[in-house]
């Protein structure tokens, strides 16, 4: 069964966007991934199909209405749908490689993209939405965040990456950042490729890569090593 993603958005023209090319584009073409969009405005209110209103209690900006969003979600994902329902949100659980892997192993996802100040809090609980953040910064909408999430998921789906091994040794898969890479020419601007990589000794290459991965992780992301130690 193909991974089935349904994206609820005010800007469906942003999809598939960059997912239409390269690995993800081919996966979409082959049908390994089904990506559909739903226009939230189709469920808007009144002649102008309003989807938002002013924040209760005052303040700047607009808030997406709970009733409009709930109808859009219900139309895209009936109660029997087992796919997780995600809301892209800077308040959400951080998107990690572990969560990406979990999603890729499942049937798909229903992804709601916020805009403006965000969404009415009541629909988050009312429709059991899991908030997911792609990082500690604020985007103008959830669409680019959804594209990031989908890109990360799609490349893990069976058959999408030619060399499946490369998916298992790269950054985060073992709680480490990846070791450095080199390719020809053997010398460039006076810099040589480390000798061990030309030694033909696979064991030595493996040990060197592991040590480099640990060194780089220690230098740049000690938090990853701490999380590893704690069994996370
Ligand atoms: N007022 C909100 C920000 C709204 S940004 C706050 O301070 O938390 C508008 C929309 O962009 C959000 O509803 C969300 O869907 C999306 N978005 C912004 N930053 C994001 C992030 N880091 N990760 C995921 N989605 C994000």
How would you summarize what this structure contains?
Strands 2-1-6-5-7 form a 5-stranded parallel beta sheet. A two-stranded antiparallel sheet has the order 3-4.
Protein model, in words:
By secondary structure, this protein is an alpha/beta fold. The chain folds into two domains: 3-154, 3-Layer(aba) Sandwich (Alpha/beta knot), CATH 3.40.1280.10; 169-230, Trp Operon Repressor, Chain A (Orthogonal Bundle), CATH 1.10.1270.20. 34% of the residues lie in helices and 18% in strands. The protein has helices at residues 22-30, 66-76, 97-104, 121-126, 142-154, 166-169, 202-220, 222-229; strands at 3-9, 33-39, 52-53, 63-64, 85-94, 108-113, 130-133, 187-188, 191-192. A five-stranded parallel beta sheet has the order 2-1-6-5-7. Strands 3-4 form a two-stranded antiparallel ribbon. A hairpin with a 2-residue loop joins strand 8 and strand 9 (191-192). Helix 7 packs across helix 8. The longest helix has 19 residues, at 202-220. It is elongated and about 70 Å long. The two termini are 30 Å apart. The mean pLDDT is 95. Residues 88-91, 113-115, 117-118, 133-135, 137-139, 141-142, 145 line the site of S-adenosyl-L-homocysteine.
